[in-house]
Amino acid sequence: MKPCVAAVVGLLLLAPVEAFSFATGKDVTFVSVELLDSTGTADSCDDDGVLDTGETARVHVTLRNNGTERLAKTSMTLSSEDPDVSFPKGEKVLFPASDPGKNTSAELTMRLSGPAKPRDITLRIDYRDDEQQVPGDKTHTAVYRVNTDELPGTSTHETVESPHHPWTLAASTKNLSPWTRQIDPTDTNWFFRGPNNAVIGELTLVSPPLQVSETEAFRFTFQHRYSFERLDSNVSYDGAVIELSPDGGKTWVNIGTSVDPTYNSTIYASGDNPLKGWKAYGGQSPGYPAFAPATANLATNYAGKTVLLRFRIGTDSEQGDTGWDLDDLQFEGLVNTPFSSSGPHRGLCLNRVPVANAGPDQTVNERRLVTLSGSGTDPEGRPLTYEWKQTKGPTVSLSDASAPNPTFVSPKVTADTDFQFELRVRDEVNTSLPDSVNVRVRDLPQGNHAPTVTAKLELSVFELDTVTLEASGTDADGDPLTYQWTQVGRPPVTLDGATTEKATFVAPEVTETLKLTFQIVASDGEQSSAPVTVTVTVNNREHAPVAAVEPVDAVEEGSLVTLKGSATDEDGVTRFAYTWKQVSGPSVSLSDRDTASPSFTAPNVDKETKLIFQLVVSDGKLDSKPVRVTVVVQDTSLEAQAGADQRVREGSGVTLNGSDSKGTGLDYTWTQVDGPPVNLILAGSKAMFNTPDVDEETALTFQLQVTDGRGRSSEDTVTVRVTDQLPSAPDSGCGCAGGQDGGVPMAVLLLLSALGFRFPKKS
Fold first, then answer.
1. HSE of 571, CA atoms in CB hemisphere, 13 A
2. What sections of the protein cross the membrane (predicted)?
3. In the CATH hierarchy, which top-level class contains the domain 28-146?
4. Furthest-apart CA atoms within the chain: distance in Å
5. Using omega within 30 degrees of 0 as the cis cutoff, is the peptide bond preceding 88 cis?
6. At 10, which helix (H) or strand (E)?
7. Strands 667-674, 713-723: parallel, antiparallel or unpaired by DSSP?
């Protein structure tokens, strides 16, 4: 029995690598991520554990509830900066709820496209619980080597990266946890792990045969770390040794003294460990949990021999620990290459076994045609061949044993009899397992009865309707029935589904009522029902006319506007009744509103205004759908323009040229509003006067008022500056052209007065 104090010390000092510290409240932490093949499906080419171009893998992530409360809103989101990486089933998934201290796992799929070259891809995993104590995502990043193939028997270096390694993993009893291949969740590096079980027994990791050179020294290096239950720094309850067999495993030699660093402990001699009293690796390795290097040098002791190497763990009946981790075993002095290496993906996909399906079991009557419903699937989608074989019942003749759906005639039987058939499918390489189907043939001592059929006898439809003819049949013997619809008379129509219970056709166009006749017959394979006749009356469908209105360009207020409507009719009608109405805008009076082309006068508006009119056309029976037209009436506002300011000398004749943007139908009024008064002579939009004598430059201001027929007016002013000396050259002269003002001689003014032009009084 172990000393009690030793057990307590061991419990306090040793902690497994996976130990977690817990947070108060709600918290989630990362445990591991695995990239798993979609084994056995077309999404995986070679099932080698490496993601290749064109493959879809499962990303299996495990998280741990690291808090003190239940988590129910845990999720993860996958992403990658590599454009060739996609996530066919989405990038986010929820995890099952987890209790404190428990793990929870979820999966998403990841697909690789792009060139099939070996390279590294980076997968980012953002995970969280929406109610965690510290909000926000946590992130784990994994790097994977893709587009590589495992090449067995090509290396003297065991990297443990291949899932199909050549090592033998064994345990002395079934209740021991065995050696396994594990992945480091922090850097996706694989290694062998032999756990420190809390059960008496041994675990062994045995190499493949190693053929030692006759001349070169035999040595190997490896990386390892260990944590075993121990008593003190020199004595352990559990531990491990390294052994070699020169005779195929019959005998084993402990080679610990050839390893540097060698064993550091002794297994407790009074315990029940199979290695008790042995020198061994025990306690914790230096720098644990970091891996540490070790070298075994066996010189030429085994030159020319084939040997086995064994890593052996012994445990007692009480407390366990993490155990022994091994990685990166490199051998020198071998003539064989027993381990796998990695190379570019060769595109050599597995050929998986296809699957046969013989179809559902059937029950039929004697003397009936029976069809077997076979099918097959191949994971790679290869074409299949079929092979049927009868395995039970009186022999029958299959129409084609290599067809997916062969037929045979059920024989006459004296009692209900079972017939069994077996189907195999083959993809040129592999043959499926057989699948069976049972056909029960029923005895009919009373003989066969003809089936009966019923249907709705009268149907009334319109032209161009899709018409469904529907029947139902019954058979006293329970036989399956077939159906046949036929048309009797003309004009012919195309029947869809004429051999089913429901047949359909499109009713022809007609100008008057038409009757079509059809018959339906049901058959049980031996006898047919009496025919049932169905009459379909096709009625002419009246078509409503279609109205149209021509668009109208923008118009000015006060202008005459004509709306132009028209109509067409599929039934050939040429006389229509037109109904117009105004639906929007200032009300106007429509003349001839019951004709195709009514008119109206555009109203006066203060701004651009829309008038909307609607037309409905009738053929005497049906009205068209309403159509609308919009008329935009533009505003023509007044804008008086008194002309440009002038500068003239004293005693000169001046003409003021007024105008307006509208241009016609206007009254013009000129008035002097400032300066020494002058006599204005008015002539429409113009006014004329002679400038007075001045001692200095003097301003005369005049106002032009423009008024339209609606009483609207607009004003503008112009200033004439009179100088007592000759103006400079640029401002001199008579500006009569292009709307410019100029002087008028006094003789002309007197002549205009004599002819009756008005001279307004001085202001």
1. 18
2. none
3. mainly beta
4. 155
5. no
6. helix 4-13
7. unpaired
**What is the CATH architecture of 151-344?**
Sandwich (2.60)
Counting as low any pLDDT under 70, the low residues of the chain are 1-23, 40, 185-188, 661-665, 725-763
Q: Cβ(179)–Cβ(205) under 8 Å? A: yes
- Determine the Cα–Cα distance for residues 110 and 124; give it in Å rounded to an integer: 12
Residue type, 105: S
- Helices marked H in 168-312 — which ranges? none
Tokens representing 420? 């069994």
Which CATH code fits 452-539? 2.60.40.10
Backbone angle region of 489, left / alpha / beta, with phi > 0 → left and psi within -120 to 50 → alpha: left
CATH fold of 646-723, please?
Immunoglobulin-like (2.60.40)
- DSSP H or E segment with residue 749: helix 746-754
Matching residue, tokens 């570019």: 344
In the chain, what are the helix, strand and coil shares in percent, each to the nearest 5? 5, 45, 50
CA atoms within 13 A on the CB side of 635: 10
DSSP secondary structure of 374-425:
-EEE-TT----EEEEEEEESS----S-TTSSS-EEEPPP-SS-EEEEEEEEE
Give the torsion through C-alpha atoms of 252, 337, 157, 211, to 10 deg.
30
State the pLDDT at residue 672.
92
Decide: 69 and 94 in contact? Cβ < 8 Å: no
Does the N-terminal peptide bond of residue 261 adopt cis geometry, omega within 30 degrees of 0? Answer: yes
Question: Domain 546-634 belongs to what topology?
Answer: Immunoglobulin-like (2.60.40)
DSSP-derived 3-state class of residue 729: helix
Q: How far apart are CA 295 and CA 265, in angstroms?
A: 18
Cβ-in-10-Å burial (0-12, 13-18, 19+) of 286 comes to: exposed
Find how far residue 465's CA is from the centre of its chain: 38
Length of the chain in terms of residues written: 763
Residues whose CB is less than 8 angstroms from the CB of residue 606 and which lie 6 or more positions away in sequence, other chains included: 635, 637
Contact residues for 572 (Cβ-Cβ < 8 A; gap 6+): none
Backbone angles phi, psi at 175, to 5 degrees: -85, 10
Return the H-helix or E-strand segment holding 681.
strand 681-683
Task: Report residue 438 as tokens.
Answer: 């049972």
How distant, in Å, are the alpha carbons of 289, 362, 496 from that of 480? 74, 11, 21
Is-same-fold flag (28-146; 151-344)? Answer: no
| Secondary structure in 3-state letters for 475-510 | CCCCCCCEEEEEEECCCCCCCECCCCCEEEEECCCC
Taking the C-alpha atoms of residue 591 and residue 383, their distance in angstroms, rounded to an integer, is 79
> 110: phi > 0 → left, psi -120 to 50 → alpha, else beta; which?
beta
pLDDT confidence of residue 288:
96
Tokens of 652: 């000169």
- The radius of gyration of the chain's CA atoms, rounded to the nearest angstrom, is 53
Would you list the domain boundaries of the chain? 28-146, 151-344, 355-442, 452-539, 546-634, 646-723
Task: Rounding to the nearest 10 degrees, give the CA dihedral for residues 449, 455, 458, 461.
Answer: -150
pLDDT of residue 661: 66
| CATH 2.60.40.10, applies to 355-442 | yes
Q: Which two tokens stand for residue 125?
A: 């995993």
Tokens of 426: 């083959």
The answer to whether 672 and 680 are in contact (CB under 8 A) is yes
C-alpha 527/C-alpha 243 separation (Å) is 84
C-alpha closest to that of 714 among 724, 723, 706, 703: 706
